[in-house]
């Protein structure tokens, strides 16, 4: 199944973004037919367009020193604009790609520029290809617009193999398509979203936010270095330091909470069904509006498979008026066992994850009013309990 998907992808990615946001797309096979001088001239035109500060210039500047003398594995290197830049600045770089022509093209440019000594290449033939990475573990994994083009399960399999080849304390850096972009562009199924973002033949594009990237890396421990939106709101940038690497837990249970009893507090108005919880909070800042008892769900989730894991609840919700806080707590409402997330009203949905501090166990999920003088309103459309690292 995943092999079929990856062959479809391979057919798409013979054609690549040709640098910057102005040159459209080019087939690597067409460039390979050129003689060396014409090939390099054409690659330089594309590379110049890609290097402008607003496109790649800022991150080339940010990471050049960090990568000098270090080994980086790139997932989906395309025309090699990033890897060749960092090679020239002293990095050791492993280019990987689904498409052999893409790799052959990069190899010709790298050799022509005399940078071949610190370069290596891996063709992604199937979802387990990264298990074949050899040699010392890498200092960083670099995935710029690649892994979000595969369904989550395939990308997770690739991710777990890549993690095995990353040093403890190494970096995981990804460019993604944000959730908000997906909402803005029509909330399409991922098989259709790719056509909107990258053209007709694109088999898949999936939104990511920080928490979803971390779920793909689960149960490795991470520290968030950067998490922001760039490219006029079209791209997400996630840079994580990977702590303890424990990629052996392949799946992790999740418990849907919408069937569990939600109780109104402080005379809030609460309407519940299996599809949504509609809450109108009390008209006083900090007053609680609802509580979901998590004891039965925690029992169903079972004990922590290994020490050090936290608990997380992922929520999808529409804040229609005002502002609400969502937080995990112990028996008493003021006994927060994780950080509260405060969400303001906006036209599109929020996705948010609330987590416990390290050893804490949540007893309830609370929602409260966090805006002065307004009875904030929220519609919660999904809530899921799971382990998090
Ligand atoms: C949009 S292009 C980006 C290329 C390059 N990273 C850049 O920034 O220009 C996507 C690249 O990811 C590769 N790719 C797509 N799906 C992949 C997967 N599941 N595993 C590894 N590479 C993949 C494609 O072959 C292609 O080179």
Describe the protein's architecture and organization.
With 389 residues, the protein is of the alpha+beta class. The chain has 2 domains: 2-242, Rossmann fold (3-Layer(aba) Sandwich); 254-388, Galactose-binding domain-like (Jelly Rolls, Sandwich), CATH 2.60.120. It contains 11 helices and 20 strands. The chain has helices at 2-12, 28-32, 36-50, 53-67, 81-88, 100-112, 152-164, 179-184, 190-198, 210-217, 295-301, and strands at 15-17, 25-27, 71-75, 92-97, 119-123, 138-144, 166-176, 222-230, 235-242, 254-256, 262-264, 269-272, 277-280, 288-293, 310-321, 323-329, 341-344, 350-355, 364-369, 377-388. The chain has a 7-stranded mixed sheet with strand order 5-4-3-6-7-9-8, with helices on both faces. Strands 10, 12, 13, 15, 18 and 20 form a 6-stranded antiparallel sheet that branches. A 5-stranded antiparallel sheet has the order 11-14-19-16-17. The longest helix has 15 residues, at 36-50. The site of S-adenosylmethionine (SAM) has 20 residues, from strand 1. S-adenosylmethionine binds at residues 9, 13, 16-17, 75-78, 81, 97-99, 102, 124, 144-146, 149-150, 158.
Structure ligands: S-adenosylmethionine
Instruction: Report helical residue fraction.
Output: 25-40%
Fill in the CATH topology of the largest domain.
Answer: Rossmann fold
**Average pLDDT value?**
95
What is the CATH architecture assignment of the largest domain?
Answer: 3-Layer(aba) Sandwich
